[in-house]
Amino acid sequence: MAQMWITMGPQHPMTHGLWTLRVKVDGETVVDTEAELGYIHRGVEKICESRDFTQVTPYCDRLCYVSAMTWANSYIYAAEDLLEADVPERAEYIRLISAELQRLASHLMWLGAFGPDIGNLTLMTWCMRDREMFLDLLQELGGSRMHYNYPRIGGVKRDMPIGFADRVIAKTKLFEKRLDEYEMMLDESTIWLVRLQGVGYANAEEMVNAGVSGPNVRAAGVNYDVRWAHPYSVYDEIDWEPSVEKPTSVKGADCYDRYRVRMEEMRQSCSMILDALNKIPGGMNTNYASGDEMIYTKAPTRAPEGATGFSNYECTRGASQFYIQGGGDGRGKNPYRLSIRSPMFITIPFVAKTMIGYKIADIPAIMGSFDPCIGETDR
Amino acid sequence: MDDIYDLRSIFLGEDSPVRDLVISSLEGTPLEESAGSIAFAAGTFAVVNIVFLMLFFSQFAILWIERKAVARMNDRRGATTALRSLWVGENGVTAGEWWNMLPFGAGVPVGAVNRWLNKKFGNRDENFATVDRVNNRSWMGYSIFPGFFQNVADGMKFLLKEHMVPRRADKLIFEVSPFLIVSSTLLILGIIPLSSGIYATNPDLSILYAIAIFGIAPIGVFFAGWSSNNKYTLIGGIRSAAQLTAYEIPLLLTLLSVAVLSGTFNIIESIHFQHSAGAWNLFLMPLGAALFLVTMIAEVERVPFDMPEAEAELVEGWWTEYGGMRFGMLFMAEYIRTYAACFLFTHFFLAGWHLPFQGTISQIPLLGDAYVLIPGAIVVLLKSWLVFLVVFVWARFSLARIRTDQILEFGWRMLLPLSVLQVVLSTLYRLFLFDPSGMKDTAAGGNAWMIPGLEIPMLLPLLTTLLWLGVFFLLLNDEDKDAAPDRMYHVYTLQPAGTHTPGKD
Questions:
Q1: What is the pTM of this model?
Q2: C-beta of residue B419 within 8 angstroms of C-beta of residue B250
């Protein structure tokens, strides 16, 4: 049969952002693919060179609009490494809680977008409803719904408001029940299973060689989670285990494995939040004023020349890394060079190649199961 | 039993007042000789118009149930458009004070009334935090049929859109195919009876007609997909043609078993038969009812069988290039087809305008008399809305979309053998269980399926269906599960969710 190229994107329901997937099809079968990225390149790394270290945080929020808190935290750890700032333990706990809340919101956004990819629109409304709970909580911390600018170099902007912990506990426990509801609708539906199982195999070895990280690689049985392998913050003080799926096929993880591992990760985040609230120094129902030494330590604003800072952070989509070179003649307040390693920039071209051999209808299922985010990809 | 509300006899009967009026008014004119024919034509015209108006207006309920009522149940309170937004406007802004644009100051009274209404029943949604947040224009947070007028607003929007034909499209076919789809869809409504006396037309072979006319639209879909000069529409059109064979044959066989059981190819006679024989087809052939619903969902291209318009990968499938009112018409046609499918299920399996438990309740004095006074058209509408809500909407809101190869496998491996099984079973029931002497056309109905010695008439059909279903699924699942560890095209999983903890094994 004659083959043809189909250009999916830059505006296409499958893309979840702004990029182009060119697919060569033979009837309904995909025979070749080509990913084109770079539609929303904003030059964040270059902009940051003319901002001082505090001003960089909001730009990092905007790297990924569904997981702003983790990206901001990721930058903050690199900046703290550069400026050698001390962070109070309570601030670390608050950062952990906020990052895990953000992980829940981000995974809910993924599930909500993944449902329509397979054809289930109800999932979208359900996930948006539940994501709203966590956005409300994050709003209480940062003051806005999407871009919080919450962490500071040396602490956090402000303490948890009074009653915040109670609301977190109530909503997290409610959400754990909602997760069971999701699984009732999805895992017990034969159609959901036949669409995901046996589709989009990605081999663990190939993924590691390509540099794919995060839930996508854990779905293939690779027990690598930055929070677990190289604990930052206080992840080594609370009880948790990375959720790793054991794939049933020698070919690697299919879409169903990737779906499962994210569902398990949401459960894990819930229990982490509850555990962190119990262990937080200073108690969960106290509120320290902004700038109190319990939540904030003043950090130097200038980096010595030649100093470098680095952070390896488990974002919601994989390992995000920041590398900052500070100092320079007369411009010690600004980063001399700031480099961002985005997990999705590596994953998307890899995913494009895993689609080969499957049907056109599997393209959104495979792409959606890898949870693409174009904001962080194009930077 | 005939419905007592007989619209056709009012307009077309031998002693109908309309007929008398037409004939008497033509007396002494040159048309006197053909007065009977003219009266018949006028009566038919009136009946057809009334029936189609009833069908169209009740269609709004279908749209409302799915796109507003159930959607809002999922989303709690969504944004709505109420009639009240004419004077309150959206967010306090009325539609540009449109009355001031009317010539000669004709809009001044409208403006005055509007100002008064605005002052009297103004937007007080800000008092209700949740209502205010989602921009709800209901009255004080309450609205009857919330979002009902949104459909009207959407239709008006479609009407005002420009019509564009894509460059290098096959213009003639591109323009013709919406008409092919919409007109063949409307023709389905012509044979659907609302009760024994309210229908547009009643051909002898109306079941065959319904299926034949249902099968025309997929050709229009294929034409539309091909002529749009777009790769998405092309794939959508070809998918539609490919899945056609997978569900059309089981559908035809299911309807054949209905016809065999009822002994007729006419919808109205089939309904009469169900009542006179004393059992709805739903209980005599539950398997057939399930098959009919599954194949009908595929026929009207709804989730989970909506691959031709799979919006995740094909943008909008075969109708990607249609805009404006052509899109609106195609969209409406899809709902009309769904609605017609609900009607057909009501008529074939739920005995049309006959009430549930009519045999028992109509025996009660007074209450029974009142019970059979409920108009048949209302019963038919309620039943078909219920079928739409419980089957079509529920399936759409809880299931995902399956792949083309999967529906082909499903159609050939499961639906086709099952429908053949249903034909055989119905033939056997008709030959050996049916007792013509039990047929009674009274309000209580007859008892033609009763077997001597068995109290429940439907027991034997139910048991035989279950038995053969068990045998079928036993044969279907008789395969080596470990032979295919890649689980391609197979529904089981070696480690189902919940049986193990990821990361611990």
A1: 0.82
A2: yes
The 10s digit of each residue's pLDDT in A249-277 is 777 888 888 898 899 899 889 999 999 99
Among A residues 200-229, those touching chain B with beta carbons less than 8 Å apart: 201, 223
Contact B173, B223 (CB under 8 A): yes
Q: Which residues contact B418 (CB under 8 A, 6 or more apart)?
A: B250, B287, B291, B469, B472
Nearest to A187 among B76, B306, B497 (CB): B497
User: Hey, which residues does A319 pair with through a beta bridge?
Assistant: A314
Report phi then psi at A315, rounded to 5: -80, 180
A20-26: strand order across its sheet = A3-8, A20-26, A29-36
**pLDDT digits 0-9 by tens, B82-132:** 555 555 555 555 555 667 777 887 878 877 887 777 676 655 555 555 445
pLDDT tens-digit series, residues A351-372: 988 888 888 888 999 998 998 8
Listing from the earlier edge strand, what are the strands of the sheet with A337-341?
A308-315, A318-325, A337-341
φ/ψ of A136, rounded to 5, equals -60, -40
Distance CA A328, CA A306 (A): 7
pLDDT, tens only, B269-311: 899 888 888 888 888 888 899 999 999 998 888 888 888 888 8
Q: Is A47 on the interface with B (CB under 8 A)?
A: no
Asked if this assembly's ipTM is beyond 0.95, the reply is: no
Angle formed at CA A217 by CA A212 and CA A218, multiple of 5 degrees: 150
For residue B491, what pLDDT is reported? 40
In chain A the first and final C-alpha atoms are separated, in Å, by 40
- Closest by CA to A130, choosing from A70, A68, A69, A172, is A172
Flag if A256 and B398 touch (Cβ within 8 Å).
no
* Interacting residues of B341 by C-beta distance below 8 A, sequence separation 6+: B296, B297, B299, B300, B392
pLDDT of residue B420: 92
Put simply, the answer to whether B493 touches A261 (Cβ < 8 Å) is no
**Residue A252 phi, psi (nearest 5):** 115, -155
* Partner A contacted by B497 (CB < 8 A): yes
- Surface of B (403-462) touching A: CB under 8 A: 403-406
Q: Give the helix/strand (H/E) hosting A84.
A: none
Q: Binning pLDDT at 50, 70 and 90, where does residue B488 land?
A: very low
- Residue A152 φ/ψ, nearest 5 degrees: -120, 155
**Domains of chain A, start order:** 1-41+344-374 (no CATH), 45-341 (1.10.645.10)
